[in-house]
Amino acid sequence: MPRELHDFIIQRYVEKRRANIESKAGYAYTTPRTLLSIIRLAQAMARIRWSDEIDQNDIDEALRLMDVSQISVLESLEEEETSMIYHNILLKSLVKPKTDVISAIFSIITDMCRNAPGHSVKYSEIEKRVKDPLVLCNILGFG
After folding, report:
1. Helices and strands, number each (H, E), in the chain
2. How confident is the model over 62-103, as pLDDT tens digits?
3. Shortest CA distance to 88 belongs to which of 69, 100, 74, 103?
């Protein structure tokens, strides 16, 4: 892993820890295991690309996955107030990387399935949605 990426991961981890400590909300979801998970996810993203080296996009996606994972856990908490506190903390520190086309399309499909009755969607509906000019502009980064 290049030194600048190593420093970037450490910086993001420290920011997440600091946000948890400053919130005084109690339980902190950012632990040393979180750092290890970010590194392993970035390595997995690099392997998916058949690369031996991690790049910035791999790290950004690993951070995004960790943030989304933590948010989903928080949303499932019974105590709404605690959930909102942590949700706000994560939203402040959420990495907003450039989304690649495949991730954008996957996100659209996931949202469609989540909101559909029975959580299933016909391929023709997905195709229609992805081919919508406004959606296509967003996917390609022009939105």
Report:
1. 7, 0
2. 888 887 777 666 666 555 555 565 556 555 555 444 556 777
3. 74
Token couple for 126: 């997905």
Residue that the structure tokens 């996955």 belong to: 65
Residue 97 contacts residue 57 (beta carbons within 8 Å): yes
CA 109, 140, 39 angle in degrees (round to 5)?
A: 70
Q: How far apart are alpha carbons 32 and 26 in whole angstroms?
A: 17
Residues in the chain: 143
pTM beyond cutoff 0.90: no
**Token output for 69:** 């994972």
Distance CA 94, CA 50 (A): 27
